[in-house]
């Protein structure tokens, strides 16, 4: 039988179950989602340079670069942030189609953004029009100093924005109790790579492990059927060798007798520790 959240298999009579790792990680995801939702809705300043929790969420999005399933969310985030920063209130479906290449339909993406109150969608002249809400505009104005934003800053904002959205999708998966629930997920599918890679990385930091070995990572994600090519790309990104993205989770690679270990950045451990303390306090 198969875990409905992560896909790991074990022998047993039922066709599905929820594994212990997923039960624990789901609680962590729910705690983290509560915190980001509160910040996105109530904070006046949303700045990853000063807020380490936002940085943690942003840094998790490096996975989207290697995962077609979730990359569409990152691309549309970048586009909307750019538009919102330039003062646009609406985006037409035609503009989106011209700017973002994807084989997926927009419906699944729009649904998530609407649920989070980041956009509203209406139909006019046979096409959909995306209205940018105040919640999105607030984020896009973060670094507004009157000077045009650099590519770098736009990217940073897009990372927070998509980190928030991806955490929301994980939050949905954390509540999945049976197979029927899959219809509630975007495109009716589980964000398997995102879930499993972060379950390992955030999970290790949550336990207070300062480092993890490449072997343990491989073992963990392979059991959950993450393809070896994806796994290889993620490992390369963690070693910061890929050039396609920068992730800020790892501060050092240690090689010992041909075995590779990764050391977490201090802030990752501190933030996960804080999440853990919060959870224990509210329990
Ligand atoms: Zn599981």
SSE diagram, text form:
Layout (H helix, E strand, L loop, with lengths): L1 E2 L12 E2 L2 H23 L9 H8 L8 H18 L4 E3 H7 L7 H9 L3 E6 L2 E6 L1 H7 L10 H24 L17 H15 L4 E3 H10 L4 H11 L11 E7 L2 E6 L1 H17 L1
Parallel strand pairs: 1-2
Antiparallel strand pairs: 3-5, 4-5, 6-8, 7-8
Helix pairs in contact: 1-7, 2-7, 3-6, 3-7
The structure holds zinc ion (ZN).
Tell me briefly what this model is.
With 283 residues, this protein is α+β, with helices and mostly antiparallel strands. The protein is 53% helix and 12% strand. The chain has one domain (2-282).
Task: Give an overview of the whole structure.
With 283 residues, the chain is an alpha+beta fold. The chain has one domain (2-282). Helices cover 53% and strands 12% of the residues. The chain contains 11 helices and 8 strands. The protein has helices spanning 20-42, 52-59, 68-85, 93-99, 107-115, 134-140, 151-174, 192-206, 214-223, 228-238, 266-282, and strands at 2-3, 16-17, 90-92, 119-124, 127-132, 211-213, 250-256, 259-264. A 3-stranded antiparallel β-sheet has the order 3-5-4. Helix 1 packs across helix 7, helix 2 (52-59) packs across helix 7 and helix 3 (68-85) crosses helix 6 (134-140). The model has no long low-confidence stretch (mean pLDDT 90). It binds zinc ion. Zinc ion binds at residues 3, 5-6, 8, 19, 21-22. Residues 3, 5-6, 8, 19, 21-22 line the site of zinc ion.
